């Protein structure tokens, strides 16, 4: 972790916090610090949460299909947080009439959706991220990821531009910092559609800080949490340079 952060006491655990004018980054377990975040305090949530991949993926350069084996080597610790533990916290922290965007693959979409509607989120839209490249699969080659969009409370008019299919190239090669890094321009588009200047967007699982970069580029404020030192430092350096 870089110099420049203070300390935040959160009950039993202490988490480091790094602040700039536009961003507050916590090096912490989201579930450990969630209790220190106030009800109805953020204007939008965008996150790409940790989950295990069952089957699929690559192993020793080959497709890993056998026996539905759990493919855990994801490049970060998933901590295996059930959706039912963290999604209710998001509902509590988000302001009323505001939007929650959560990324998922095809396998986790149903359990994420159930956890969301069970805590009263209203389903708004299923957005498709067309990655414009395919990865091999048992059935059809996969080319999409999904973004579930929910609102808390009543509908609020906003400026929804584009369509439910968002085409973006995924970060690759030297520009890729994190194993599941998402395109900044896609997040920036959602932030611009769902918030106003200087409003606050929150990401409880920020990884390399793509949501933070999108918010700062869009002139919004950002709060992010990351549990792993390596990814927290990547986020911190990234935000520092903007
Ligand atoms: C799918 S990645 C997010 C990648 C991010 N969208 C990006 O563009 O870099 C999920 C991140 O959540 C972090 N994570 C896992 N459990 C966590 C927890 N309990 N609290 C905070 N972060 C956590 C992982 O270390 C990982 O970096």
UniProtKB/TrEMBL annotation:
Query: SUPFAM superfamilies in the record, alphabetically?
Result: S-adenosyl-L-methionine-dependent methyltransferases
What GO biological process, any one, is recorded here? DNA restriction-modification system
Q: Which residues form the DNA methylase N-4/N-6 domain?
A: 42-234
PROSITE patterns per record: N6_MTASE
InterPro entries, per database record: DNA_methylase_N4/N6, DNA_methylase_N6_adenine_CS, RM_Methyltransferase, SAM-dependent_MTases_sf
- In Pfam terms, one family for this protein is N6_N4_Mtase
UniProt EC number: 2.1.1.-
Q: Which UniProt keywords apply?
A: Methyltransferase, Restriction system, Transferase
Which one of the record's GO molecular function terms can you name? DNA binding
Q: Which family does it belong to?
A: Belongs to the N(4)/N(6)-methyltransferase family.
* Name of the protein this chain belongs to: Methyltransferase
- Name the lineage: Bacteria, Bacillati, Bacillota, Clostridia, Lachnospirales
